[in-house]
TrEMBL record:
Membrane topology category: Multi-pass membrane protein
Pfam families: T2SSF
Domain of life: Bacteria
Protein name as it appears in the record: Type II secretion system F family protein
Transmembrane segments: 12-31, 105-128, 140-161, 291-313
């Protein structure tokens, strides 16, 4: 076996050293390191964000208020016609709370819109019938049709609020089992009820803003209400859901008798999850009857046309 003599070994090592030196010197140019560039870019972006936020904060704006003020027009209409007495029984306020509207401003707006909408739609209906369409109908009939539009305007705000309540309850019902799981984890970890509600409200906000709003509002009421049970009752009243009422009942019992809350929350979370699954199964089961009419109207005529048209063409050729 031939081995390299010392001179050849020295030449080989020198060549390798020279190659390594050239590689080390040229490495930053061949494979540049973008870390410094990225850091400078991030630093510049941070500075731009800081300047932008500082400019936004320096803009003179109206001081923020936790209590939204109603519009002067709506307030004047409500005061002029004494519409506030319609909300004295609390039913309108409760429905607005269930729809997610808080405070006196939504009540004033709702009462004023319910008064203005029939008048506006009645006038619009008359103008449309007499000016735009100009039909050859008796004036009494056209006035009756305009009155029908006005009646629709009276019921439109209530229908809108009812739809808002339905959508909000559906959103809360979907995210409520996950909120109960988080509440169970926080309670079993040793947190108090107020801290648990606050933590769940912060964590569940990404999934459901409605549940987070109710949790944070309940936390605030637990802090300043003298009777803590009233805060739980308000939570059940604002949502109007059976699953929330069951949780509220368990919280009140735990507050009154000192019963363990973890097991009850675990059972109710599973029950709410089963209810959500049964609701999904019910919707899936109701899908075939709902598809019957669209299939008859849109699918079967096309199918018959595709099947019968070739036979008709052959008969006509004969």
């Amino acid at each position: 076996m031939n081995f390299l003599n010392p001179e050849q070994l020295t030449v080989a090592l020198s060549a390798f050293a020279a190659f390594s030196a050239v590689l080390a010197v040229s490495w930053p140019y061949v494979f540049p390191n973008n870390l410094a560039t990225r850091m400078r870019r991030i630093e510049g972006e941070r500075e731009r964000i800081r300047v932008r936020e500082r400019a936004r904060l320096n803009v003179k704006a109206r001081p923020a208020s936790l209590r939204a003020e109603p519009r002067k027009l709506y307030k004047a209409i409500v005061d002029r016609f004494n519409l506030a007495r319609q909300a004295e029984n609390g039913e309108i306020i409760e429905k607005l709370n269930m729809a997610g509207y808080r405070g006196q401003a939504p009540v004033t707006t709702f009462l004023a819109v319910r008064l203005l909408a029939p008048l506006i739609l009645f006038v619009v209906g008359l103008l449309y019938r007499f000016v735009v369409m100009r039909p050859d109908l008796p004036p009494l009939l056209m006035a009756a049709m305009a009155a029908g539009m006005g009646a629709t305007g009276y019921f439109a705000p209530a229908i809108y609020i009812r739809n808002r309540i339905t959508k909000r309850q559906q959103a809360i019902r979907r995210a409520w089992p996950e909120a109960l799981d988080l509440l169970l984890i926080t309670v079993e970890s040793g947190m108090g009820v107020e801290s648990a509600f606050r933590k769940v409200g912060e964590e569940i906000a990404v999934q459901s803003a409605e549940v987070a709003e109710e949790m944070m509002l309940t936390t605030a009421e637990l802090s300043y209400l003298q009777d803590r049970r009233q805060a739980y009752d308000n939570l059940a009243r604002r949502t109007g859901l059976d699953g929330v009422r069951a949780v509220v009942t368990s919280l009140i019992q735990a507050e009154k008798y000192g019963t363990p809350l973890g097991q009850a929350l675990r059972v109710m979370a599973q029950e709410n999850r089963d209810m959500r699954m049964s609701e999904a199964e019910k919707k899936a089961a109701s899908l075939p009857p709902k598809l019957t009419v669209p299939m008859i109207v849109f699918f079967l005529p096309v199918l018959f046309a595709v099947i019968i048209t070739p036979a008709v063409i052959q008969i006509m050729d004969i």
